[in-house]
Sequence to fold (337 residues):
Amino acid sequence: MKRRKIVMLILGVVLAVGVAVTLYIIKEYNRIHKDTADLKPDYSVSAANMLQEFQTEEQSSNKKYWDKVVQVDGVVKDVSKDEKGFYSVIMGESSSMSSVRCSMDSVHNKEAEGIQKGSPATIRGICAGFNADELLGSDIILVRCVVIPQK
Amino acid sequence: MKNLVLLLLATAFLAIGSEAQKYFTKNCKINFDATSASSPERIEGVNKTVTCVVDSKTGNIQFSALMKGFEFERALMEEHFNENYVESDKFPKAEFKGAVANNEKVNYAKDGTYTVTVKGKLTMHGETKEVETEGKITIQGGKISALADFNVLLSDYKISIPGLVADKVSKTAKISVACSLEPLKG
Fold:
């Protein structure tokens, strides 16, 4: 009798663990990206300073910012829209060829509509890296961006 | 004298006509599709931040894509893509340097659509391989629209697919390129 109880108990535990692991796998499998608006920035920096960092120390800046949530504030150089209607907010000094290019998150895309060239803006996104280019100007790329409303 | 003036004018026009015009974009879109035939779900990522430059005079084309810019719907898929497959922390950029093989057939000054052959070297995951693809170039209103679809064998770029997901992830990835380029000023 006692032995049977122990076996049942063990089976129960194994079953419970099995269910828990299965649920976890299903949850992990279906996990979607957290909304950037809900993520706390790892860094808050001005576009000018971030560009300066990458231009002087590309390798260490990459280590610092790559795959991190960065909140960038600065002046909007341009707002560009691709053929599918996805916006990119481009920040930086108009005198420089280099910019911080913020590719809007598809869910938050419309937030870029009201942004005016020359106005200040704060954008939060995931840093995808630095695209060094002598001809076109080197850019920092942020993806899944959201607009943080100016206070 | 008149002949000299005409000759000078002709030379001037020729000089303007043959001036290299570069076209560029910084939001070219590249689709990476590695869905295998037997997969129940799509293995597909999109990068909307690709840089492209086209030199209309030489037909030279260059692309530059940050691997971390490829967005996948499922976070786990994107993490696997970056951490296990393309190892984007070690190889953050993919580049293509090539040219339009029959560039002289393309009249960049006039509206029109051309089927072209593009040949060049693709560097991805630290490996460089020759790639050749057909593409479509459309000139309209002084802008260029470029489209191309081609396949890459992932093993060519030392991208290994674990046996566990071999039935989902195809050994060949379909790359689709769609760009809208504008003249580069100055």
Chain A has a mean pLDDT of 93.
